[in-house]
């Protein structure tokens, strides 16, 4: 089983200087690639000078974001397993061994995510993926170890191996044959939640995703777009609606879209109360973009006719967390 660790880079010299050394030191099982999205800094010169014998460089013609960046780069990577790793991730010793072992043990496992802890506070789970991703009935994503902004301390409560619904794009391990069968990421997402859509489409085709808690990486988070950036708000709200239209079973679709429109309006009002109107405007723009592209997403829905009805972990994560005050995964009903 051949393996490639592929790190997408865009003007990330500082991140590569900080995090690439651990990847090179602890990824002996893999060939390492830097997929560069037309950077204008000195990041490629840094890689060429310091890692000319251990890291290969793929040059994309433009910055197409996370989705297109990986789609373009992975056309040039011939291997059995892709490990898509953010440039702001530190890996640990022997981190690949449990992942590769799980791929070998279960032939129908197509996607794997390791435990993702916070690089800045390694005792806690990190927002982007934590201990494996799930969604609720309305399509809201959440994780073991992270419910919205409530992060759990890692007390080894999630060191097991379990099925999950989605794996974080911060460290997404996927069989190359499955990735290309799915035609990769949806490039209309640009960035954010495209990994949830990819995993959802994989589930619709009968593939499994797993969380392997015996492998650990540390993610700094927000290095590309920070939480306060309205572009991140725009992409998260719009792309979540995209995934619903593309993947939810027909019997639920109208109810879910209508419910999400109402809840998004409440979220916009919350941002106004918090004196962050720029995020309210981002939600409004997200909806305009969603409406204008609805027919395109509806066409993509038809390309994957099978829809699994067993996609959700709970009925309402918003209700559980914001109304009932539940902060941890184990308390969610």
What is the rounded Rg?
19 Å
- CATH class category name of the largest domain: Alpha Beta
Reading the helices and strands in chain order gives: EHEHEHEEHEEEEEEEEHHEHHHHH
How many β strands by DSSP?
A: 14
- Largest sheet report: 10 strands, mixed
CATH architecture of the largest domain: Alpha-Beta Complex
Distance between the termini: 39 Å
Helix percentage range = 40-55%
H/I helix tally: 11
Per CATH, the superfamily of the largest domain is Spore Coat Polysaccharide Biosynthesis Protein SpsA, Chain A
Strand content: 15-25%
Structure classification: alpha/beta
Low-confidence segments, given as residue ranges, are none
Descriptive notes:
It is a single chain. The longest helix is centred in the C-terminal third of the chain and has 24 residues, at 250-273. This protein has helices at residues 13-26, 43-50, 65-74, 96-105, 176-181, 194-204, 230-247, 250-273, 277-292, 294-303, 317-323, and strands spanning 3-9, 31-37, 55-60, 81-85, 89-91, 109-118, 121-125, 133-135, 141-143, 146-147, 150-151, 161-164, 171-175, 208-219. The model has no long low-confidence stretch (mean pLDDT 95). The protein has 333 residues and is of the alpha/beta class. The protein contains 11 helices and 14 strands. Strands 1, 2, 3, 4, 5, 6, 7, 12, 13 and 14 form a 10-stranded mixed β-sheet that branches. A two-stranded antiparallel ribbon has the order 8-9. It folds into 2 domains: 3-219, Alpha-Beta Complex (Spore Coat Polysaccharide Biosynthesis Protein SpsA, Chain A); 230-331, no CATH class. The radius of gyration is 19 Å and the shape is globular.
């Amino acid at each position: 089983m051949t393996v490639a660790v592929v790190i997408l880079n865009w003007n990330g010299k500082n991140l590569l200087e900080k995090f690439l050394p651990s990847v090179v030191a602890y990824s002996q099982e893999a060939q390492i690639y830097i997929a560069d999205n037309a950077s204008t800094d000195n990041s490629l010169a840094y890689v060429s000078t310091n890692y000319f014998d251990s890291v290969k460089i793929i040059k994309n013609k433009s910055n197409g974001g996370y989705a297109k960046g990986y789609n373009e780069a992975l056309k040039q990577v011939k291997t059995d397993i892709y490990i898509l790793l953010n440039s702001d991730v530190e890996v640990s010793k022997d981190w690949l061994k449990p992942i590769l072992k799980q791929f070998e043990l279960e032939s129908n496992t197509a996607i794997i995510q390791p435990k993702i802890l916070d690089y800045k506070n390694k005792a806690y789970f990190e927002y982007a993926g934590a201990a494996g991703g799930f969604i609720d009935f309305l399509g809201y994503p959440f994780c073991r170890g992270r419910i919205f902004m409530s992060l759990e301390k890692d007390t080894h409560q999630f060191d097991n191996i379990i099925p999950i619904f989605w794996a974080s794009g911060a460290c997404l391990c996927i069989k190359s044959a499955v990735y290309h069968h799915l035609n990769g990421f949806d490039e209309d997402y640009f960035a954010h939640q495209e990994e949830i859509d990819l995993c959802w489409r994989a589930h619709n085709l009968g593939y499994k995703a797993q969380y392997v808690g015996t492998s650990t990486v540390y993610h700094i988070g927000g290095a590309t777009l920070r939480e306060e950036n309205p572009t991140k708000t725009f992409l998260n709200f719009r792309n979540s609606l995209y995934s619903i239209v593309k993947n939810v079973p027909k019997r639920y679709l109208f109810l879910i879209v209508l419910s999400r429109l109402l809840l998004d309006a409440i979220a916009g009002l919350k941002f106004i109360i918090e004196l962050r109107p720029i995020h309210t405007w981002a939600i409004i723009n997200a909806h305009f973009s969603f409406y204008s592209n609805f027919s395109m997403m509806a066409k993509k829905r038809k390309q994957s006719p099978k829809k699994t009805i067993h996609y959700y972990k709970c009925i309402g994560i918003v209700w559980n967390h914001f109304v009932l005050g539940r902060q941890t995964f184990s308390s969610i009903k």
